[in-house]
Amino acid sequence: MTTHTIAVLSDSHGNGTAMRAVLADAEKFNVDEIWSLGDIAFGGPSSEDCYQLLSEVNTTQYLKGNWESAYNMFTDTKKINLDDPTQVYYAMLVAYDYDRFGPERDKQLHELPMTGRKEMDGLTISLTHNLPNINRGHTLFPVEAQENFDAITPDEDVDIAIYAHTHTPLWRYTSSEQMVLNPGSVGQSWFTRQKFLADRDASYLLLTLADGKVMDVHFRRVLFSWETEIQIAKDRHFPYVSVYQHLLETGNASTHNAEVLGKINDAHNYRQTVIDFLKELEEK
Predict the structure, then answer these.
(1) What's the structural domain count of the chain?
(2) Closest CA to 90 of 188, 108, 231, 82
């Protein structure tokens, strides 16, 4: 019997230290290929590193996460509310990574698909970042209604639906008993229960198939050094280092904390930095 093992990962959010740890762990299991379900970039100092690391292994699927969508929209429309601290935060992250992406990476992000579909070992597998037609929102958080998860598969032919976005590992079924899996997050693990949230290790999924059977579903937790990751952020002059450190240490994000972000924006004059970046985009 020939088995086929896939490493399914998502949501590294620019955390290169965690990505390296996950790929090293997957190598120990001699995985045949890797599927990336989006949000590889943005949030940490090493978005380009994360994409480069995936290009160096047999990554056969990439998807567009909500952060890649935000990047594309911002660089295309060049529109932002400069009075909204959260939007300035987003724009600063885009500006930071834009300066490190080359034209080919920018092109790749703009061409990422929303969905993927695999026919493998007699099984049909659908791949999404969130729902098939929308890659953001809270619709598929683990405690949401069954009807939400019934909407994750594009048709009844799908045997396994794998999605990401929520940063929480999950295994459940649709009402038609289609398997639903979520690998969790490489870079920013998330749980609502505080005792589980205390586990800050990276997470991903090993899926082993053979002869039309799901032989194994293995949720992996991988230790990485957040201290190393923060030092990289400092060395690379990543904006919002304090916010990033708080996230990696505690799991609590400040993405929508206008007070915290506003103070940082004012202290570093990030509003003007974003204005200058917009002018740069307009001139290209």
Answers:
(1) 1
(2) 82
